[in-house]
Amino acid sequence: MQPEIELKLDLTPEAAEMFAQWPFLPTESQTAALHATYFDTPDHQLGKRGMSLRIRRSGRRRVQTVKADGHEGAGLFARDEWEMPVRGATPVLDDRTPVAALLGEAVGQVDRMFTVDVQRRTWMVTQDGATIELVLDRGAVLAAGREQAICEIELELKAGDPAALFALARRIDADIALRPGVLSKAERGYRLTAALPTAFRAEPVALDPAMTVGQAFLRIAASCLRQYRLNEALLLDHYTPEALHQARVAIRRMRSALKLFSTVLQALDVTRFQNELRWLAATLGEARDLDVLAARIGDGRIEGPRAAAQGRALQWLASARVRMLLLDLVEWLALGAGLGAKADRLAAPFAATRLRKLRKRISKGGKPMARLSDEARHKVRKEAKRLRYGAEFFTGLFDNKKKRRRRRKIFLGRLESMQDVLGTLNDLVTTPVTLARHGLPADIGTGRAEKADLLTAAAQAHDEFVDARRFWT
């Protein structure tokens, strides 16, 4: 078993054709046609555990590989790997891999799931004193009678500093647009075996009480970045309102994580990324506001400004500024995010303190809800979002007792109910502004719920939230 560190980068077929002719590539390269068959149990027990099992054939040679996901989730993959030659097309599941021990009796159910066929071209590159294997893969994954194209670059560090991977990626992106990849070939195959998604919601973050603050932050931030990239890829292929919404959710989650962990991060890093993420959220916000307005009101006069806003959002998503923000974030996380000694303490007490302070601010700031100004209510709403994201981030740190799980369910349910009412109140305030900004008449925003009734509902939801017991104690 040996560690594998690689940076995965997605590109379009047109960009891949340009890259194959990139003048800075070494003159010598190797080419190979690779056919890989992936195996699992019918209920995907390996995939659900973040593992993959494949047999790859190149010419007459067959190699079996088992990979364990390192949970990096955002461009840089660091995984455990078990590899050995095999003679046939059937996996060898003995004690040289962890598969048999992991599956137990279910090991007998292992069967073919999907295949991946790629044309691979490989170069050995030197960058800043590091040796990097540069691979261009073009092909397709086939599963359940469906097919999806694969077009990606992998930069695998053979020797030297991981920072060289990013220096090389930036050199390439100066001429050919690249984006951090977040899906392995195995994940692409598993996704083809199910209904294709229209958006990606946040995935649970795998934390445990033995983790340090730094380890928790890196995993949480990588999860946020992964959610963003999955939705961004959908948007760049075909715009859907839900994918845009979930991309903005991912940005808010990342900003919340930076705020929650600000005491263990470098202030300059936090400021830099907060500013860029705030800009990106605002850039996508115009299209999101009009999507929501169109769904709520359904007036045809909205469609022209809405289509224009969607077009502007897609233009920015394709920009070099966004690509560099993503690559900067991946590099920052991959190189440790500048975490110091303060991040070495256990995560659970740190998380409990952060959640307690947020809860206290919302409890105090929301009283009396009915007499708060629009600005003050909006501040409570933002704090509630941050608390909800934090509670979801830290679930694994406080999931060891049944009563805690029951309290968490009640706590999050009441927090979400309060958010919903505050969100509707916020719509009352922002709708006239949105309409005026796009030259639309104010009368198409009529038919909204009465503000007095909503204020009463918000006050009640706030009281019920305050009464909910904390799940982190």
Automatic annotation (TrEMBL):
Enumerate the Gene3D superfamilies for this protein.
CHAD domain (1.40.20.10), Hypothetical Protein Pfu-838710-001 (2.40.320.10)
The record's section on Pfam families has: CHAD, CYTH
Indicate the segments forming the CHAD domain, all copies. 210-470
Give every CYTH domain span: 2-196
SMART domains (alphabetical): CHAD, CYTH
What is the top-level taxon of the source organism? Bacteria
Recorded GO terms, molecular function?
Answer: inorganic triphosphate phosphatase activity; metal ion binding
Official protein name in the record? Inorganic triphosphatase
Give the species.
Answer: Sphingobium psychrophilum
Q: According to the entry, what is the taxonomic lineage of the organism?
A: Bacteria, Pseudomonadati, Pseudomonadota, Alphaproteobacteria, Sphingomonadales
